[in-house]
Write a structure and sequence with these properties.
- The protein is built from ten helices and twelve strands.
- It is an alpha/beta fold and 314 residues long.
- It has two domains: 133 residues, ATPase, nucleotide binding domain (Nucleotidyltransferase, domain 5, 2-Layer Sandwich); 169 residues, Nucleotidyltransferase, domain 5.
- The strands form three sheets. A five-stranded mixed β-sheet has the order 3-2-1-4-7, sandwiched between helices. Strands 10-9-8-11-12 form a five-stranded mixed β-sheet, with helices on both faces.
- Helix 3 crosses helix 10 and helix 5 crosses helix 6.
- The longest helix has 25 residues.
- The two termini are 19 Å apart.
- This is Glucokinase.
- One of its GO terms (molecular function) is kinase activity.
- It comes from Evansella caseinilytica.
- Keywords: Kinase, Transferase.
Length: 314
């Protein structure tokens, strides 16, 4: 039997097909082009599904899992106005896909799905307490607690990107100040860099960039740029505080990182973990392991597919 995973993002929509051994046997991707409207995007998704299923029979598919940016309602199966999917307002995607393919469909936040993908596909359900953290355009998370995906009252548990790290910090897209996402995401790093450049006459390699990005900041810091080094140290402190808070809240065995910012590797992550290690309770630090996802860019597909087995069993 197969299970289908659909990973919906602001840039790409991806579809994968997994067999009983957890192998990704087919995958395809297409641009989301959200500006063209929801109906056009869903039609492209359906065409992608047809392409993935060209050499397979629908009767061999157990179900469809969908990971999407939030906010969304997993109980209704409805996507509710994600910032990076303009126009996707209260879209009943689960109902649309169930009616089209006559299969059970499970829609969940992409970071929650990713945590489930790690739990099932990387650790074979043997690590009962883990947290997945993605540091990319935004910051999101998913929590497996005692072998169960933590969802919360409305299905929005573990919105770790919106824990407030600095009450008077950077203005976040959610309207609050000092959220972890505003302080330490790729978007947040770029915004903080632009503000520093505007406030200071300090020379910096970043002044040569057409549009300052988090990657520009990371590269400048590696080249010894004083402004970038200072900013990155602040970002690493904020992320370390966020990680310590997460560990204290959920007491995991493993914390797994993903997302574009983490592609900077040890040069970025090692100082973060060193700072976090100094403030995490020793009793909770015992046996705690940090790692970067082994599933790479396909984690979103693995996570979406994992929804099928997990929710058909529970």
């Amino acid at each position: 039997m197969y299970r289908m995973g659909i990973d919906i993002g602001g840039t790409n929509i991806r579809v994968g097909l997994f067999n009983d051994d957890g192998a990704l046997v087919e995958k395809e991707a297409i641009l989301t082009n959200a500006h063209e409207g929801v109906d056009a995007a869903i039609e492209r998704l359906k065409a992608l599904i047809v392409k993935v299923m060209e050499n397979h029979q629908w009767k061999q598919v157990k179900g469809i899992g969908v990971g999407s940016p939030g906010p969304l309602d997993p109980w209704k199966g409805e996507i509710q106005s994600p910032p990076n999917l303009p126009g996707w307002d209260c879209i009943p995607l689960r109902q649309l896909l169930q009616e089209e393919y006559q299969l059970p469909v499970f829609l969940h936040n992409d970071a929650n799905a990713a945590a489930l993908g790690e739990y099932i596909y990387t650790y074979n359900r043997e690590v009962k307490n883990l947290v997945y953290i993605t540091v990319s355009t935004g910051i999101g998370g998913g929590v497996i607690a005692d072998g169960r995906l933590m969802l919360g009252h409305t299905g929005s548990a573990a919105e770790i990107g919106h824990m407030i790290i600095r009450p008077n910090g950077v203005l976040c897209g959610c309207g609050n100040r000092g959220c972890l996402e505003a302080q330490a995401s790729g978007t947040g790093i770029a915004k903080r860099a632009k503000e520093l450049l505007a406030e200071s006459d300090q020379p910096s390699l970043l002044r040569e960039a057409e549009q300052v990005s988090s990657k520009d900041v990371l590269v400048a810091a590696q080249n010894g740029d004083a402004l970038a080094v200072e900013l990155l140290a602040d970002v690493q402190t904020d992320l370390a505080v966020g990680i310590a808070n997460i560990v204290h809240a959920y007491n995991p065995q493993k914390v797994i990182f993903g997302g574009g910012v983490m592609q900077a590797g040890d040069a970025f992550l090692k100082p973060v973990l060193e700072k976090a290690g100094k403030i995490i309770f020793p009793s909770m630090a015992e046996g705690l392991e940090f790692s970067v996802t082994r599933l790479g860019g396909d984690l979103g597909l693995y996570g979406a597919a994992a929804l099928v087995d997990y929710f058909q069993e529970t």
